[in-house]
C-alpha cells in the first residue's frame, strides 16, 4: 500500500482528536493489513512508521517551539493504544521514537534542536533509545557503557547496548553512559549519537517470541569520539533523565501499546461470542450466562486499567508532583491486566483461538513482553512500595 494514501493535507493538529484520527488512519489502512506479515517474518513495520512521519506525527512530543506538536504522556498513551490495537510492533517502534525525542528535548541546546528536534518534527528523522545492557537486566539505570572526557574536551564512548528498538533503522540513538568524576565517583549521563557515526556496529536482529517486528538489535560502540554537543544536559544528569523523562515516557508508550493489544483481543472475543452459534439449538455463545459474567468481568478490569493509564498521563502533563508514582503503577497494572485479559479471551473463544496464526495467539505473544521489558512489573511494584513507605528507591 502506498504510504502517501494516508497523507493529510495541512492537518489541524492543535486539537488532539485530529491527531488521534490521523493515527487511526495509519493504524487501520497500513498497520492492520501488514500486521500478520510483520509478525510472521519479523520485519520492521517500515510502511506504517514512514506513514506516521509523512502525516506529521513524528514530532508528537517535540515542543512546539521546534516545530513539534507539543504533547506529553496522555497523547502518547492514546496514540500507542490506537497503533497497538492493530500492530504491537508498530506501536512500540513509534513509541520508542517518541521517548527518544522527549529525552533529547528535555534539556536541549540549540545545536541539538537543529540537528534532531526540527528534523524529527518535519518527519525526516527517526530516533530511539539505547539503554539496555547484558549484565544489568532490569536495572537499565546502571549503565556499564563508559564515557571518558578527553584532554581536548571531546567525549569518547565505549560499550555495547542490547535490545535497541528500531535497530539500524533509526537516524540517532539516545545512549546512557557511565563515567568517573573528578573524585572518582561513578556518575551517569546521556548522549545522543548519529546513526552514521563511525565506530558503530550492529549485531543480528533479535528473534523474539512476540513483538517480532521491533528490529531490536545489539549496538556496539567502539571508542566513538563525540563533540561536547552530544551530551544531553550536564554530566551526571542521567538519573534525573531516567525518572523525569525516560521512565515516564517509556512506561507510558508501553502501557498504551499493551492497552491497545488487550483491547483488540477483547473486541475479537466479543465478536466471536456474538456470532458463534451452537448448531444443535441455534443459540449464540453470547446468550450463555456464564460467558456473559466472565466477559463482563474482564471488560471491567481492562476499562479500570485504561483509566489508570489515562489518569497517570494527565497528572504528569499537569505537573503533579506525585505523578511519576502513578505512571510507575499504571504500567504495572496494565501489564498484569492485559496478560490476564488476553489469557481469558483465549479461554472464552475456545479451540479456535489456539490455531496457528490466529490474531489472539499473536496478541498473547505480544502482550507477554509487558512483564519482562524493563522496568519489570516486580521492580515497578517495589519502587512504588518503597516510595510510599518513605524508603530509598534503590535500597536493597
Short overview:
By secondary structure, the protein is α+β, with helices and mostly antiparallel strands. It is 50% helix and 13% strand. A hairpin with a 5-residue loop joins strand 2 and strand 3 (155-164).
Description of the structure:
By secondary structure, the chain is an alpha+beta fold. The protein folds into 3 domains: 7-126, Orthogonal Bundle (Butyryl-Coa Dehydrogenase, subunit A, domain 1), CATH 1.10.540.10; 130-236, Butyryl-CoA Dehydrogenase, subunit A, domain 2, CATH 2.40.110; 239-388, Up-down Bundle (Butyryl-CoA Dehydrogenase, subunit A, domain 3), CATH 1.20.140.10. It contains 11 helices and 8 strands. The protein has helices at 16-41, 46-54, 73-84, 88-106, 110-121, 238-275, 289-317, 323-349, 359-367, 369-372, 377-388, and strands at 127-130, 146-149, 155-164, 172-180, 186-194, 200-202, 217-226, 231-232. The strands form 2 sheets. A 4-stranded mixed β-sheet has the order 1-4-5-8, with helices on one face. It has a 4-stranded antiparallel β-sheet with strand order 2-3-7-6, with no helix packed on it. It is globular, with a radius of gyration of 21 Å. It starts with 15 loop residues before the first helix and ends in an 8-residue tail after the last helix.
Overall pLDDT score: 92
Poorly predicted regions are: 1-8
User: Cα distance, first to last residue?
Assistant: 52 Å
- Number of contiguous helices: 11
Task: Label the structural class.
Answer: alpha+beta
* String of helices and strands: HHHHHEEEEEEEEHHHHHH
Bin the helical content: 40-55%
CATH H-level superfamily of the largest domain: Butyryl-CoA Dehydrogenase, subunit A, domain 3
Largest sheet: 4 strands, mixed
CATH architecture label name of the largest domain: Up-down Bundle
Amino acid at each position: 500500500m502506498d504510504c502517501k494514501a494516508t497523507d493529510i493535507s495541512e492537518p489541524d493538529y492543535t486539537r488532539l482528536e485530529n491527531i488521534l484520527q490521523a493515527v487511526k488512519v495509519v493504524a487501520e489502512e497500513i498497520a492492520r493489513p501488514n500486521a500478520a506479515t510483520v509478525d510472521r517474518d519479523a520485519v520492521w513495520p517500515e510502511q506504517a512508521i514512514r506513514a506516521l512521519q509523512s502525516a506529521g506525527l513524528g514530532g508528537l512530543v517535540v515542543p512546539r517551539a521546534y516545530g513539534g506538536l507539543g504533547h506529553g504522556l496522555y497523547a502518547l498513551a492514546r496514540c500507542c493504544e490506537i497503533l497497538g490495537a492493530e500492530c504491537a510492533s508498530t506501536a512500540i517502534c513509534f513509541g520508542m521514537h517518541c521517548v527518544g525525542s522527549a529525552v533529547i528535548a528535555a534539556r536541549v541546546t540549540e545545536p541539538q534542536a537543529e540537528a534532531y528536534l526540527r528534523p524529527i518534527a518535519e518527519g525526516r528523522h527517526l530516533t530511539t533509545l539505547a539503554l539496555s545492557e547484558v549484565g544489568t537486566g532490569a536495572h537499565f539505570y546502571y549503565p556499564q557503557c563508559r564515557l571518558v572526557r578527553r584532554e581536548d574536551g571531546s567525549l569518547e564512548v565505549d560499550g555495547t547496548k542490547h535490545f535497541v528498538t528500531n535497530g539500524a533503522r533509526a537516524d540517532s540513538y539516545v545512549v546512557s553512559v557511565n563515567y568517573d568524576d573528578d573524585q572518582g565517583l561513578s556518575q551517569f549521563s546521556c548522549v545522543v549519537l548519529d546513526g552514521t557515526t563511525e565506530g558503530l556496529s550492529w549485531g543480528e536482529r533479535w528473534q523474539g517470541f512476540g513483538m517480532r517486528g521491533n528490529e531490536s538489535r545489539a549496538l556496539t560502540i567502539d571508542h566513538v569520539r563525540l563533540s561536547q554537543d552530544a551530551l544531553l544536559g550536564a554530566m551526571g544528569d542521567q538519573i534525573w533523565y531516567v525518572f523525569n523523562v525516560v521512565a515516564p515516557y517509556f512506561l507510558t508508550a508501553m502501557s498504551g501499546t499493551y492497552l491497545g493489544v488487550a483491547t483488540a483481543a477483547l473486541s475479537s472475543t466479543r465478536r466471536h461470542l456474538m456470532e458463534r452459534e451452537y448448531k444443535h439449538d441455534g443459540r449464540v455463545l453470547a446468550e450463555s450466562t456464564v460467558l456473559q459474567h466472565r466477559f463482563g468481568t474482564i471488560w471491567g478490569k481492562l476499562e479500570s486499567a485504561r483509566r489508570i493509564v489515562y489518569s497517570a498521563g494527565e497528572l504528569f502533563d499537569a505537573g503533579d508532583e506525585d505523578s511519576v508514582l502513578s505512571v510507575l503503577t499504571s504500567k504495572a497494572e496494565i501489564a498484569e491486566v492485559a496478560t490476564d485479559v488476553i489469557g481469558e479471551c483465549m479461554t472464552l473463544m475456545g479451540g479456535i483461538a489456539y490455531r496457528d496464526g490466529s490474531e489472539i495467539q499473536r496478541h498473547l505473544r505480544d502482550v507477554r513482553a509487558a512483564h519482562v521489558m524493563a522496568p519489570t512489573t516486580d521492580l515497578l511494584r517495589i519502587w512504588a512500595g518503597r516510595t510510599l513507605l518513605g524508603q530509598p528507591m534503590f535500597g536493597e
